Amino acid sequence: EATIEVRALRKTYGPTVAVDDLSFTVAPGQVTGFVGPNGAGKSTTMRMIMGLDRPDGGSALIGGKPYRSLRAPLCRIGAMLDASAVHPARRARDHLRWLAQANGLPARRVDEVIDLAGLASAAGRRAGGFSLGMRQRLGIAAALLGDPPVLMFDEPVNGLDPEGITWIRALLRSLAAEGRAVLMSSHLMSELEGGADHLVVIGRGRLIADTAVGELLKAA
Ligand code: ADP
Ligand code: ADP
């Protein structure tokens, strides 16, 4: 199933408890907003989901399996965690071609994701000259390459202009409408207004709220 399941996840850095007994599920067919102030533990949680950081306790599963045991991981989960991860000398299209090739994905996907991410006019340019917003689009294109049922974006709205924010909202909505599980983090609740179906709110690594947006509006 297209889900992310986080169970009793825990991560400490020395005396800092970055993620503290955190449990939540990201359901298919929805955009789930992952909200909390800077330092709340969102990126650490997402890194652990992607197997980039080792939990001190608990587990994070993608379709029932840890990231590191996934076969064809790009076809299981696509993530944009750090928009500056691309080598500055690489041209956007070449980066995507390399990623596709390294993961055994068809070359035609490169042009498809360039279109999906709105990168057509910049695809031949070097990533080093990209604005943050363009780097976000490149990260989103990379995440979509394997056409995965689960998607995760860390602060994708950062560095985008209002038009870009409207665009990304529509993109995430359409990805969820296709039945995908979509997790998007933000340190601003307002960025998720009208964009998320479900909210997972954390503070100091701990769960504060896990609720459907519809329920929240009824209670207000
Ligand atoms: P968020 O993504 O919500 O802003 P982070 O997951 O980046 O939060 O950080 C959670 C906490 O863990 C913060 O106190 C942060 O300073 C700390 N932290 C994150 N990564 C590291 C690291 N590599 N080394 C030490 N502390 C870290
Ligand atoms: P490099 O540092 O060589 O560019 P990465 O750090 O980007 O490689 O990739 C490390 C691992 O993460 C690889 O196994 C790759 O399949 C996976 N990966 C890279 N980008 C993505 C993405 N956007 N979505 C999902 N997995 C990714």
UniProtKB/TrEMBL annotation:
The keyword Transferase does not apply. GO terms for molecular function: ATP binding; ATP hydrolysis activity. Residues 4-220 form the ABC transporter domain. Keywords: ATP-binding, Nucleotide-binding, Transport. Belongs to the ABC transporter superfamily. This is ATP-binding cassette domain-containing protein. It comes from Actinomadura darangshiensis. The lineage of its organism: Bacteria, Bacillati, Actinomycetota, Actinomycetes, Streptosporangiales.
